[in-house]
């Protein structure tokens, strides 16, 4: 190899230093160079009207705040792309100013120090007449401060084919035992299975399984967010009920083991399942695509187990990112969105997909006059997050995203493990996740 | 003789059967896409999967063009893919010529580096690239996307053309130089006319890569005005509900441009690939 002169060595060293440090320098400067004053990432709704209204409100606010139209970036980000896109934007130091965050994401990004404190805005919402559903606060409170603005409470009702119950002259079942008996009477497999319970390696399975286990007194973690209680007698009893529904009573379609998150939606929408536990996305879909099926669909509470009825809710929130060069504008936009009059317009345009966080908005005819929504207030008031009895912490988010509970139920249904053994394995895995997250 | 001929016939028969199977394997997804795009929602979600639409309808296409910005997505994909193809051809041609014909220090290293660059997975690069693009204010622009795509099309195209240029007899070029041609003149007048099949392959590669790219388009683009088809398709999934009809219609239409391009340039593409294989 030829010898380098001192000048060549200096040149090479300078280039190498510039090349290795430029990514950090670029990350640091990228946000400061931003031309836009408001950057809002919008996640699409079910109805184009809701999307349009939201866009309108962003520009209305900008106008009021003296921001020119060209200084507003309104981006639509599909659900499927959202997490990867947001992670990249945060890494690159260029997140949006405001966006919608799902359940444990508020806790996750707040714990990383990315979110603005919006406690004052949430306190203002709480002071509205009748206040807000306090059940929504679990997902946004971090060390006693609201780091996100609760946007909608989503109950997970049982979408039920009331016409089939009527034909069989049966009432909607009040308990899981009744549910099984009713299911056996109304189903006619393989065309129609009674219970479209999601059992694939996806998030909806965790939601569906945990919801049933709660009714049997089970839970994943105690309220201290530290003590994992997955390997309990109560959870074992619940898992055995699911096992019986699948193997003995055969009221769950065998294909449910490989469903993705849309599996239960498809089963209900194609009239191949009489009952499914899901947020009202199915109901909202039917509103625009199958009015006949929507008319005979009831949004019912989950049947009770020995410990009563427990309904799941998940909470969506708006988050504002600390990186914004214009924090006042970001918080101002959130305030504008959540002004009850503006907020109600969006809520009603979603056709029932978003359930308002303001209690008093339930007084409107939209919610009062539709029988399908009669149970929603109670569900919104008493609902619990999937991480119950704990909060939607980053650890709980990891349990959900890594499908630990779906793996447990598949051990029982596919590998024929005893419920207790599968729960033990699941318990250990969740303990690991919580311990790792506690270490930070 | 009869045995040999019989054996050949059997081999031919097996070969044809395999080809027919592969044809079915390739075409069925296309057919399914088209058939689904012509069905109503009730039929798509029906208990029985129907091979032929019972009541064919164009309502999904009407919805696609009337109620979604699909035409904008197509326009954006075309701008980005054509822009990237032209830029890739220009950079790769000059780069490949330099590496194939000129003598300079580090030539071997650069040539090997091209292959290594191409092998780095985009999943590792999208965050640093996003930082660079943000700093240069190129996020959410067509030219930003074109520049990003050059990072994976130029190395491969250069490497491919380099092999091809080396197979062109140097004597032809030397004769041109003796006759007074410049380096660039000999490239454009001698080498490129003889390398048209290779250029067709390179163009086809660059076009399809940028047309089908998803990750960078997903991360670097926010607005409808710049969004490409691949990322536009995901907007037909809202939460856990799939709008299959319009999604299949959009998928079918977006698969057409690369397909048509291949059909038009098929002869050159096949020639370029096979010649490159022997000479490169």
What report would you give on this structure?
The complex is a heterodimer of chains A (about 450) and B (about 280). Chain A is an alpha/beta fold and about 450 residues long. Chain A folds into 2 domains: about 40-155 and about 315-375, Periplasmic binding protein-like II (D-Maltodextrin-Binding Protein, domain 2); about 160-310 and about 400-440, D-Maltodextrin-Binding Protein, domain 2 (3-Layer(aba) Sandwich), CATH 3.40.190. Chain A has helices at about 5-30, 50-65, 80-90, 105-110, 120-125, 160-165, 175-185, 205-215, 235-250, 265-270, 280-290, 290-295, 325-340, 340-350, 365-370, 375-380, 395-400, 405-415, 420-440; strands at about 40, 70-75, 100, 140, 145, 150-155, 160, 195, 275, 295-300, 315-320. In chain A, strands 2-1-3-11-6 form a 5-stranded mixed sheet. In chain A, α2 links the parallel β1 and β2. In chain A, α8 (about 205-215) crosses α9. The radius of gyration of chain A is 24 Å and the shape is globular. The relative contact order of chain A is 0.16. The mean pLDDT of chain A is about 90. With about 280 residues, chain B is an all-alpha fold. Chain B is about 80% helix and about 0% strand. Chain B has a two-stranded antiparallel ribbon with strand order 1-2. Chain B is globular and about 75 Å long. The mean pLDDT of chain B is about 90.
């Amino acid at each position: 190899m030829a010898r380098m002169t001192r000048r060549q060595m200096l040149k090479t060293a300078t280039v190498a230093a510039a090349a290795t440090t430029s990514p950090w320098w670029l990350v640091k400067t990228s946000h400061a160079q931003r031309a836009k004053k408001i950057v809002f990432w919008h996640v699409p709704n079910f109805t184009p009207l809701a999307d349009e209204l939201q866009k309108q409100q962003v520009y209305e606010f900008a106008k009021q705040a003296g921001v020119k139209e060209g200084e507003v970036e309104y981006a639509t980000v599909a659900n499927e792309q959202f997490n990867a896109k947001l992670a990249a934007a945060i890494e690159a130091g260029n997140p949006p100013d405001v966006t919608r965050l799902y359940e444990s994401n508020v806790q996750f990004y707040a714990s990383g120090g990315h979110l603005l404190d919006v406690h004052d805005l949430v306190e203002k919402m709480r002071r509205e007449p009748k206040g807000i559903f306090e059940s929504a606060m679990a997902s946004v409170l971090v060390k006693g401060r609201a780091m996100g603005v609760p946007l909608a409470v989503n109950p997970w009702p049982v979408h039920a084919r009331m016409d089939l119950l009527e034909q069989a002259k049966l009432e909607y079942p009040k308990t899981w035992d009744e549910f099984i008996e009713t299911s056996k009477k109304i189903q006619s497999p393989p065309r129609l299975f009674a219970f479209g319970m999601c059992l694939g390696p996806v998030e909806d399975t965790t939601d569906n399984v945990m919801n049933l286990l709660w009714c049997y007194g089970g839970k994943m973690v105690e309220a201290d967010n530290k003590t994992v209680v997955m390997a309990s007698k109560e959870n074992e009893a619940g898992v055995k009920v699911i096992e019986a529904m699948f193997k003995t009573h055969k009221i769950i379609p065998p294909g449910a083991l490989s469903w993705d998150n849309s599996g239960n939606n498809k089963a209900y929408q194609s009239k191949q399942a009489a009952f499914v536990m899901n947020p009202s996305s199915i109901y909202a879909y039917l509103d625009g695509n199958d009015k006949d099926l929507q008319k005979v669909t009831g949004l019912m509470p989950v049947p009770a187990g020995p410990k009563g009825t427990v309904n799941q809710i998940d909470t969506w929130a708006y988050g504002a990112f600390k990186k914004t060069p214009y924090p006042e504008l970001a918080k101002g936009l959130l305030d504008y969105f959540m002004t009850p009059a503006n907020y109600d317009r969006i809520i009603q345009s979603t056709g029932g997909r978003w359930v308002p966080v303001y209690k008093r908005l339930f007084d409107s005819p939209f919610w009062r006059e539709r029988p399908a929504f009669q149970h929603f207030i109670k569900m919104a008031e008493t609902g619990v997050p999937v991480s119950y009895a704990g909060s939607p912490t980053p650890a709980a988010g990891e349990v959900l995203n890594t499908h630990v509970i779906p793996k447990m139920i598949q051990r029982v249904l596919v590998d024929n493990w005893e419920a207790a053994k599968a729960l033990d394995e699941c318990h250990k895995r969740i303990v690991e996740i919580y311990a790792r997250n506690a270490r930070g | 003789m009869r045995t040999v001929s019989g054996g050949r016939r059997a081999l031919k028969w097996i070969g044809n059967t395999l080809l027919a199977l592969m044809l079915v394997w390739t075409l069925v997804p296309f057919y399914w896409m088209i058939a689904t795009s012509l069905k109503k929602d009730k039929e798509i979600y029906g208990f029985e999967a129907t091979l032929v639409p019972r009541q064919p309808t164009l309502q999904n296409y009407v919805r696609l063009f009337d109620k979604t910005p699909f035409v904008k997505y197509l326009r954006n994909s075309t701008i980005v893919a054509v822009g990237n193809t032209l830029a890739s051809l220009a950079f790769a041609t000059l780069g490949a010529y330099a590496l194939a014909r000129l003598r300079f220090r580090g030539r071997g290293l650069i040539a090997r580096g091209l292959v290594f660059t191409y092998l780095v997975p985009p999943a590792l690069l999208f965050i640093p690239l996003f930082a660079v693009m943000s700093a240069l204010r190129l996020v959410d622009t067509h030219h930003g996307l074109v520049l990003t795509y050059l990072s994976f099309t130029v190395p491969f195209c250069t490497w491919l053309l380099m092999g091809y240029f080396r197979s062109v007899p140097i004597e032809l070029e030397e004769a041109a130089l003796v006759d007074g041609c410049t380096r660039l003149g000999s490239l454009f007048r001698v080498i490129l006319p003889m390398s048209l099949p290779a250029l067709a392959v390179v163009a086809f590669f660059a076009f399809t890569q940028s047309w089908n790219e998803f990750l960078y388009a997903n991360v670097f683009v926010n607005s409808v005005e710049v969004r490409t088809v691949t990322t536009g398709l995901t907007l037909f999934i809202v939460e856990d509900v799939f709008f299959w009809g319009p999604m299949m219609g959009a998928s079918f239409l977006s698969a057409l441009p690369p397909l048509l391009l291949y059909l038009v340039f098929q002869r050159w593409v096949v020639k370029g690939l096979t010649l490159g294989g022997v000479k490169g």
